Amino acid sequence: MAVPDASVAQDFYGTFGLDVEGKGSTLLLKTFGHEHRWGSVVEGAKTKALHHLSFGCYAGLQAARRDGRVERMFAVAPAVNHWSFDFMAGDTRPLTVVQGRADEIVPFSEVQDWVDTQAQVDFHAIAGAGHFFPAHMGVMTHSLLAGVGATADRASARS
């Protein structure tokens, strides 16, 4: 799969709410309202790499919400201050949410307020963790795996 041309990439990433800034044949991808660059697209590149891109939770939950095969959903630092997560209203499937208390991009209080509106939430607040959990990766991973274990336990109980 080839790296898309700049106009296609701009339309695609813009759809997900990213600010896309052109610099020659490179597109810089930024979260709306922030100057930090999360990724870039280089037109005509022979290889692809995408890193530090922070809209996956929003897109992933939207896809999972529409797919009845999904038994449990996961959200890590959901950007509830940038995008509306109203599409999750009424969903009763279990949802694991992991949020750093020191998140510099998504205020903890806004995530906590959103979590309070959800039906079945396993909420993990990690003290001292920022948006990307650099010093708290083990705790974040453990929190997510606890949700996977709960889903596996329910599946084996049904069989």
General description of the model:
With 159 residues, the chain is α/β, with parallel strands linked by helices. It has 2 domains: 1-53, no CATH class; 56-154, Alpha/Beta hydrolase fold, catalytic domain (Rossmann fold). It contains 4 helices and 6 strands, in the order αβββαββαβα. It has helices at residues 6-15, 56-66, 108-115, 137-158; strands at residues 18-23, 26-31, 37-42, 73-76, 95-100, 121-126. A hairpin with a 2-residue loop joins strand 1 (18-23) and strand 2 (26-31). The longest helix is centred in the last third of the chain and has 22 residues, at 137-158. It is globular and about 45 Å long. Residues 48-54 have low confidence and may be disordered.
CATH topology call of the largest domain: Rossmann fold
Question: How many independent structural domains?
Answer: 2
Largest sheet composition: 3 strands, antiparallel
Helix share bin: 25-40%
**Count of extended strands:** 6
What does the overall shape look like? globular
Name of the CATH first level of the largest domain: Alpha Beta
Write the CATH homologous superfamily of the largest domain.
Alpha/Beta hydrolase fold, catalytic domain
What is the succession of H and E elements?
Answer: HEEEHEEHEH
Contiguous runs where pLDDT drops below 50 for at least 5 residues: 48-54
Global Rg: 17 Å
How far apart lie the N and C ends? Answer: 40 Å
Strand order of the largest sheet: 1-2-3
Mean pLDDT: 78
- What's the quaternary structure here? single chain
Number of helices: 4
